[in-house]
Design brief:
binds 2-acetamido-2-deoxy-beta-D-glucopyranose, alpha+beta, six-stranded antiparallel barrel
Length: 279
């Protein structure tokens, strides 16, 4: 009886340690080997969109003009009131090393498309929006947008992703995390996605404007990381090529799968939307 007890208990203790380790590492991702905090003073254009009332990290964005942030549309989906939200640059606590702004308006690609000729909106892919801050000029240096780059279309390209997400609901990192990933081909991506259980995309035909990225060890974005910038290569850059829109399997679940993929929306197809709305 005692022996059986020991056999049953041992794997459970190991499982507990594993869970504790993965949960103690803030994001982006779940793998300490491939994720690091951004160095102080770098990537100052990266914003945390925070719900001040709930104290939660909603998503990550990039300052791309004097007062506009680019992020995912699902970030503020369903929110009509923006009064308790803020965009934070720098560090989430303390007085000196951060800049905090209110958000005065949001415009999703879907909204813009309604009033624009020759525009079609797709719910799955076109997860992009622009937030206007409540000041005319943040005084911070904005990132530029790399509309002309083919980097995200080429399999094997190395990219950096930055996210300000939380590993689990009660832990919020003070600065964003960065990780590197590699772009894989559409074919490889669709193959991986088909093998996932449960499947995460009903339609595994990836549109050309969506890139697929993976890493080894696995990087695992969660709530708060989405909308974050995708940058060229593994070095410090301030040219945003895409935004992180989704991961498969489904968001916000801590279920590991080696075939997991991260989906990126290429900004090259959104030049009109972005330029028209950030002047
Ligand atoms: C904003 O926060 C205040 C204080 O918690 C609350 O009373 C108010 O209802 C909130 N507004 C919205 C739109 O959620």
């Amino acid at each position: 009886m005692g022996r059986l007890h020991r056999i049953v208990q041992q794997p459970m203790i190991m499982w507990g340690v594993l869970v504790a380790l993965t949960r103690s590492e803030p994001l982006i991702g779940e793998n300490p080997g491939s994720i690091s905090r951004v160095r102080s003073g770098s990537f100052k254009f990266v914003a945390l969109i925070r719900d001040n009332e709930k104290g939660s990290h909603l998503c990550t964005g990039s300052l791309i003009s004097k007062n506009h942030i680019l992020t995912s549309a699902s970030c503020l989906e369903g929110r009509k009131e923006l009064e308790n939200l803020s965009a934070i640059f720098g560090i989430t606590v303390g007085r000196t090393a951060r800049s905090v702004f209110g958000i005065s308006s949001k415009l999703t690609y879907q909204d813009w498309c309604r009033n624009s000729v020759s525009c079609t909106w797709d719910k799955f892919t076109d997860d992009i929006s622009i937030l206007q801050l409540d000041v005319a000029d943040t005084g911070l240096r904005a990132a530029s947008v790399g509309y002309q780059s083919d980097h995200l279309k080429n399999s094997g390209s190395k990219i950096t992703v930055i996210g300000w997400g939380s590993t689990y609901k009660l832990f919020h990192p003070l600065v964003p995390r960065r990780a590197t990933m590699n772009i894989i081909s559409k074919q490889e991506c669709e193959q991986r996605v088909r093998s996932l259980v449960p499947p995460c995309l009903a339609d595994v035909q990836l549109p050309n404007k969506v890139s697929c990225a993976v890493s080894d060890p696995m990087v695992f974005p969660v709530e708060g990381d989405f909308g974050g910038p995708i940058l060229y290569g593994g070095h410090d850059h301030a040219t945003v090529l895409g935004i992180l829109i989704q991961r498969c399997p489904i968001r916000n679940k801590h279920d590991f799968d080696k075939n997991q993929v991260n989906l990126i929306l290429q900004l090259s197809t959104f030049q009109d939307f972005i330029e028209d709305n950030t002047r």
